[in-house]
């Protein structure tokens, strides 16, 4: 090592002059002692060797579809592996310091940190995912489409509301659309776990502000007050859409295919 870089497994810096191992395919760099904890398959690398501290979702997405950031995939995989029996999943907060620390490690290594299984408290993993989504420069539904999502969710007729929401989802940037679909399928699985005690209403209250947010980066106090109940309504309506609709985005090999 000539230029000190963080280990992709443990996150600590590999010092100058030390021997390290680097994957010739995904460029994962790690201590020789961390080799045993290295994943057997390469994790898709984002556009940048290291992620920015903040950005829009596309800045963190891989270059091939489905365009879901590795951090989101890893957190969701870990939660579904050992968290679906936890009461209050996503509602119970994880330790703030650990959430910040793990989010920093994941961002520093471009989302390729394969040791989330070492995080004892699954609520910390949930916290990392929520904190990442909250830290984006704009919410998943984007500032420009925010009003359209609110209008679609406000339509009183369920069938008309569903049709309008499908149309607005198809207008999202590909990375936002794929990631939203991936998260909706995950949250539906959480809602169906009796042990979690997190139905669609509970999940929509937790994820409304995170996924829908506001129509600008600096909303007025009035806008915050008016948007909050409508944010939850949007997520609840999105979770009412059929699984097949969301699967069409994350299971297709064509980047811009919009299912009918």
TrEMBL record:
Domain Phorbol-ester/DAG-type residue range list: 1-42
Q: Name one GO biological process term.
A: mitotic spindle midzone assembly
Annotated TM spans: none
Q: What Pfam families does this protein map onto?
A: RhoGAP
Record-annotated Rho-GAP domain positions: 55-246
Q: Tell me the domain of life.
A: Eukaryota
Ordered alphabetically, the record's keywords are: Metal-binding, Zinc
Zinc as a keyword? yes
Question: Which GO molecular function entries does the Swiss-Prot or TrEMBL record give?
Answer: GTPase activator activity; metal ion binding
Q: Which InterPro entries match?
A: C1-like_sf, PKC_DAG/PE, Rho_GTPase_activation_prot, RhoGAP_dom
Its GO CC terms are: centralspindlin complex; cleavage furrow; midbody; nucleus; spindle midzone
Name of the featured protein: RGAP1 protein
Taxonomy of the source species? Eukaryota, Metazoa, Chordata, Craniata, Vertebrata
Gene giving rise to this polypeptide: Racgap1_1
